[in-house]
Amino acid sequence: MDQKLEIRGKVCVTGASGYLASWLVKRLLLSGYHVIGTVRNPGNEKLAFLWELEGAKQRLELVKADLMEEGSFDDAIMGCDGVFHTASPVSTPTSDPKAEILDPAIKGTLNVLSSCKKSPSLKRVVLTSSSAALRARDDFDSTIPLDESSWSSVELCESLQLWYALSKTLAEKAAWEFAKENKIDLVTVLPSFVIGPCLPFDLCSTAIDVINLLKGDSVTFSWHGRMGYVHIDDVALTHIHVYEDKTATGRYLCCSTVLENIELASLLSNRYPSLPIPKRFKPTPQSRAYYELNTSKVKSLGFNFKSIEEMFDDCIASLKEQGHI
Questions:
Q1: Domain segments of the chain: what residues?
Q2: What is the number of other CB atoms lying within 10 angstroms of the CB of residue 150?
């Protein structure tokens, strides 16, 4: 493994305790990388699950960093070959969307990239964006699948109060502008709704949405409308794939399947008849927008996605094992 580690080198993962980031840390360790993970409090006992990952005791370091603190990521990133910036707020704002969602996403991204600019050893930065940064728009032809050339409408996001989509759109645009000005090799990954096992016991907002659906709540998923789904392991592997592939450039949409709420509910009801999965959903402005997603760009790199059945089977098995359902 030491030889493999020498070849793979050192990388930084921001927000290492997060739902996706922890899977990325897991996959990077299994691939032989030395991982510097940034967290708000390295001594937090809730981070114990990271130390249980294979290879963690030999090749994982957790260091303190704060998205809103300029220069906070300097030490973590210095000496790294690559940076995976995944940290970003996903919760629904309680009172001030700008302070709670937009500022941490945009300023946090620029703070991380500012630290990247200072590291002479850095080869590539992979930023986690979202399909929300390309599908929130009302001027597209629904017969043509959306691809990486699409961007969400800032005006539409603001009018519908789609703060997460707005934060991802503005943060990614700011990242591309900064990267271009400072000659940083940037690649972005745009996952759809991420499904799969959760490594930390404390569930993220996406996992809570899934639990609500499985318990019969039709309200939460009504706001999802038509949605793309992707296995969390595929998202982690896509990040590593575009980091390692020198031909990778620009944005990469990361999605396995796009389904209507009612299609997903029907599939899950047939597969899990004992669960009280709802049969109807209230129409919302988002749920009326039909779209497909074109993932040919990432597939052209040789990447293939797990099925919708596999991602939900793995997710539900994990939730049951942890006692959440």
A1: 2-320
A2: 22
